[in-house]
Design brief:
With 380 residues, the protein is mainly alpha-helical. The chain has one domain. The chain has 14 helices and 4 strands. It has helices at residues 9-18, 21-49, 70-89, 92-118, 122-139, 158-178, 185-203, 207-227, 237-261, 271-278, 280-295, 308-314, 319-339, 345-361; strands spanning 53-54, 66-67, 366-369, 372-375. It has a two-stranded antiparallel sheet. β3 (366-369) and β4 form a beta hairpin. The radius of gyration is 21 Å and the shape is globular.
């Protein structure tokens, strides 16, 4: 006698929702947004009550005393939304990876809280980041196993893939942390990167990963409501920059991992260059700042006002306009790479990198004095 297994209620719900992906996408963003909007006022109130705030100093661009634990609200919105999405759409392997992700993002949240409240040394923070990155790469099946032809490199040995993936995660976390210097920039840039990544996951057929990206988008929109507020303003703080930076890094690692396993699929054709375009602002800004600090015989992790966004503010732009310009740059350079997707990966890289560097050096080639604009030779 033959027996047939009937679909469970869970499978029926998943199959039903899979026919309405547009609605699921909207609900995911709104869910993360609402959770963040509910949590954030409480975070603002607690931060002010416990004096967990940022004071203006010589390298900051804000005025007044501002709460710094916005990352708690973003963390809550992202993590809770992802759990719901996982119950409905994740397969067994993705659920296992998610369990690892949950533990590690909680650890980064606690490290960020400790830094925002008590301050911990850069070396100690770096050690925690290396620990988190190492555990994630070795405990999951996600790593950068191929350059998909960039520099003529295709397959990477497992040992090299693990080391390089750890390096990328730590690099992205710190690069994202360093751009969190003016109102809106970290939130807007994180949302733009996640929207584009969500589209890449969606059109490559990886819907659960798409929902993870969209959960971050919704949470960051909720954060931006308060970040741009006059009366209830809050910053991400190290709590948020490490949490968001980690989520962004995992999105990039996941996309590159999928590309390594599906190099012939058109949407993965130039995956490494697409990732570099998405992250070009924080990566190039970090590279420049590190070079400046080393040339001045300072620690590359020392704080200053040498970032591109600081330069835009010093040229007289308001925070929202500086943020808008950087956001437009990120969209523009990514669209350029996608428009050239039919070309060889190395050709696109050779075109994109000089264009990106040229655009980002422009603010340092401008001097604004007495209402007059003057172009000069940019220097470190």
């Amino acid at each position: 006698m033959l027996t047939t297994s009937l679909p469970t209620n869970h499978e029926q719900i998943t199959q039903f929702l899979s026919n309405y992906k547009g609605i699921v996408i909207i609900v995911t963003v709104i869910t993360a947004l609402i959770i963040t909007l509910i949590v954030m006022p409480k975070v603002v109130a607690i931060s002010k009550a416990k004096n967990l705030t940022a004071l203006p100093n010589g390298r900051t661009s804000h005025k007044g005393v501002i709460p710094t634990l916005g990352g708690v609200g973003v963390f809550t919105g992202v993590v809770l939304t992802i759990q719901v999405a996982a119950i409905l759409f994740a397969n067994y392997s993705q659920l296992i990876d998610l369990m690892v992700f949950n533990v590690l993002i909680l650890l980064l949240l606690l490290v960020g809280l400790a830094d925002d409240i008590m301050k911990i040394s850069p070396k100690r923070k770096l050690a925690y980041q290396l620990l988190v990155a190492s555990i994630f790469v070795m405990a999951t099946n996600l790593n950068i196993n191929s350059f998909v032809g960039l520099f003529g490199i295709y397959k990477i040995s497992i040992f090299s893939a693990i080391l390089f993936s750890i390096f990328v995660i730590v690099l992205v976390i710190n690069a994202y942390n360093l751009i969190d210097g003016i109102d809106g920039l970290a939130g807007v840039l994180g949302a733009i990167i996640s929207i584009i990544t969500a589209l890449l996951f969606y059109y490559s057929g990886h819907f659960f990963y798409c929902l993870i990206s969209l959960a971050l988008v919704g949470a960051l929109i909720g954060f931006l409501v308060f970040n741009f507020s006059r009366n209830r303003k809050i910053f991400l703080g190290d709590t948020g920059s490490m949490v968001v930076g980690f989520v962004l890094a995992i999105q990039m690692i996941t996309y590159l991992s999928l590309a390594g396993h599906n190099p012939d699929k058109e949407i993965f054709h130039n995956a490494p260059v697409i990732v570099l375009a998405l992250l070009s602002y924080p990566l190039l800004d970090t590279l420049r700042v590190f070079c400046v600090r080393i040339c001045n015989k300072k620690s590359p992790f020392s704080a200053d006002r040498n970032h591109i966004h600081h330069r835009l503010i010093d040229l007289g732009l308001k925070h929202k306009w500086a943020t808008s310009l950087i956001a437009l740059y990120t969209i523009g350079i990514t669209v350029l790479v996608l428009a050239l997707n039919h070309l060889d990966t190395n050709v696109i890289f050779a075109i994109t990198v000089p264009v990106a560097m040229l655009i980002l050096v422009i603010p340092f080639a401008i001097q604004y004095k007495s209402g007059k604009i003057k172009f000069v030779l940019p220097t470190l």
